[in-house]
Design a protein that fits this description.
Rossmann fold; about 25% strand; alpha+beta; binds adenosine monophosphate; Glutamine Phosphoribosylpyrophosphate, subunit 1, domain 1
């Protein structure tokens, strides 16, 4: 999880641009936020807990400088302490290095112990600081060279914005797990996790950063370098299913479009089993289920209807770390429209079932509002394996589809029938029918990297430490 943003300008202070860019990426992390800005001589950092507005105390940051990076954080495991708030800062060959990271490393522990043996003291428990210290301690005359040699040692998912020597540098890991794109405005260059952030700051989309690419921007323009290849590209399919904003384009595919195609395909699979007759309306779980529900309704001919209204002032359900809090958040967040649901046979569309807590509560809500039947259709396959690349899809025993059959899940969440999109259907919707370019390890357990270091202990703790 997490969102990163960076801006380099020829002529204006960039702190407020970073603020606006991160604001557009708020859905990628609500736990904390930070911005680091430099004028080439000094660096200033401002960080805080909570949403952007809270972290920056309802005002634009007063940091001065022409180059800035920022981060919104969603920690996937533990560690929501102040010391884990990014961007991180260390002194290095060009005075300082500052870094913000989206992803999750798979060999951070080994590298960390090696660095600690050499006497390095870590300020946080985050794997992002491992990359920061590698870069800060690397030899080489140019920042790009130091970054390339450092990152050649790490394995896993990392979309980075780095600031050093007055340059803005963007990096996407060789598998291209999480998105990162390059934009341009009249007076500078921009890097962002998603294209919606470019729109927010008035920057024009130039292109996606390629897997394994290091892009450096400064007064001389933009230069591109390559990290050693690590085998096939493995873009995270969950970015399309749930995580990214529907108005963003990732690697040439619009997220809304992808979700709509998932809904159409899901409808075809549903109709093949059940026909059109058993349902009166198609209802989305807002917001992530909307595009898929529109696609489902268009394909099936079953009318689309709103049945749940979302209170927009409550954050994404998973964001609150405790299971107990999560349950009350669902209730605070969604309320049924009784008029639309009463005596109707409802096809309920949600993007995913992870632990099953949300679905069970939603079905209760629909029934209490008078729905005659509830058929749940999920626009992704059963999540059977944890993610080690930065998406919070939990430890294995908490994933309902890892421990229960589809029929058992149906029974537990209390729905009349339950349908998941097939993996083939999903891959077709994201235009990768042979699955060569997508990471779908949460659905099939085939991890594209060595994840043996990321083992989850029986007590639920993760040996790898927090990351984003
Ligand atoms: P549950 O099955 O109760 O664990 O929650 C599933 C709901 O959480 C779905 O409605 C998704 O929209 C949402 N969701 C799916 N994946 C994630 C994630 N990694 N982080 C936060 N929310 C998620």
């Amino acid at each position: 999880m997490c969102g990163v943003f960076g801006f380099w300008s020829k002529k204006r202070p960039v702190a407020d641009v970073c603020y606006l860019g991160l604001f557009a990426l708020q859905h990628r992390g609500q736990e904390s936020a930070g911005i680091a800005v430099t004028d080439g001589m000094h660096i200033d950092v401002e960080k805080g807990a909570g949403l952007m507005a809270e972290a920056f105390k309802n005002r634009l940051p007063s940091l001065k400088g022409y180059c800035g990076i920022g981060h919104v954080r969603y920690s996937t495991f533990g560690g929501s302490s102040f010391s884990n708030i990014q961007p991180f800062l260390a002194s290095g060959a060009d005075g300082f290095v500052s870094l913000a990271h989206n992803g999750n490393l798979n060999n951070a522990l080994k590298i960390r112990s090696r660095l600690e043996e050499k006497g390095l003291v870590f300020q946080s428990t985050s794997d992002s600081e491992v990359m920061l210290n590698l870069i800060a301690g690397a030899s080489g005359s140019a920042a790009e060279e130091r970054i390339l040699s450092s990152l050649a040692q790490v394995e896993g998912a990392y979309s980075l914005v780095v600031m050093t020597g007055g340059k803005l540098i963007g990096v996407r890991d060789p598998h291209g797990f999480h998105p990162l794109c390059l934009g341009r405005s009249e007076d500078g260059y921009c890097l962002a996790s998603e294209t919606c952030a470019l729109d927010a700051v008035g920057a024009e989309f130039v292109r996606d950063v390629r897997p394994g690419e290091v892009l450096a921007a400064d007064g001389e323009g933009v230069r591109s370098y390559s990290l050693p290849s690590r085998g096939r590209r493995s873009s995270c399919v969950f970015e399309y299913i749930y995580f990214a904003r529907p108005d963003s384009d990732i690697d040439g595919l619009n997220v809304w479009e992808a979700r709509h195609a998932m809904g159409r395909r899901l409808a075809r699979e549903y109709l093949a089993k059940h026909g059109r007759e058993g349902a009166d309306i198609v209802v989305p779980v807002p917001d992530t289920g909307i595009a898929a529900a529109i696609g489902f309704a268009a394909e099936s001919g079953i009318p689309y209807a709103e049945g749940l209204i979302k209170n927009r002032y409550v954050g994404r359900t998973f964001i609150l770390p405790e299971q107990k809090t999560r349950k009350t958040t669902v209730e605070m967040k969604l309320n049924p429209i009784r008029e639309n649901l009463k005596d109707r046979r409802v096809v309920l569309i949600d993007d995913s079932i992870v632990r099953g807590t949300t679905s069970a509560r939603l079905i209760e809500l629909l029934r209490s509002a008078g729905a005659a039947e509830v058929h749940m259709c999920v626009s992704s396959p059963p999540i059977t394996h944890p993610c080690y690349y930065g998406i919070d899809t939990s430890i294995r025993k908490d994933l309902i589809a890892a421990v229960a059959s589809v029929d058992e899940i149906r029974r537990r969440i209390g729905t009349d029938s339950l349908h998941y999109l097939s993996l083939e259907g999903l891959l077709e919707a994201v235009r990768d029918p042979r699955g060569g370019n997508m990471c779908v390890s949460c659905f099939n357990g085939r991890y594209p990297t060595d994840v043996s270091e990321c083992v989850i202990e029986p007590d639920g703790s993760k040996t790898g430490g927090p990351s984003c």
